[in-house]
Amino acid sequence: MITDSRHIEATIGDDPGEIASVRAAVHDLAERAGYGERADDLALAINELIANAQEHGAAPIHVVADAGDGVHVEVRDAGCGFDWTEAVREHPPRPDSRRGRGLWIVLQLVDRVTVERDGDHATRIRVDLDQAA
Fold it and tell me: Regarding the domain with residue range 2-129, which homologous superfamily does it belong to in the CATH classification?
């Protein structure tokens, strides 16, 4: 992992045990940038995105985070992608649903979510926190 006070880069595989160090680094970056409690929100969102990439995508998973004019984090995997319109819901999943909470939770925690396909073999999800108050 490459880190400094305003930038993080990490590449991880499909082991869920690898998420904790990236989550902590993103949290610390947001906290240093003045986001206070929102750093917790961002850390949870990143945890969900990496877990989804590990379960539904393919390694390697690249995480890049920058703080400056807001905090921006990109999670990119080598999977075949997914249909964002099918995966995102405006309302929470039903309590008896076994799946479908991760992306909905992410949408509640950050200011913006952008999903792009990178060719035929990668999904790139970017989440943003707007400038700290």
Answer: Histidine kinase-like ATPase, C-terminal domain (3.30.565.10)
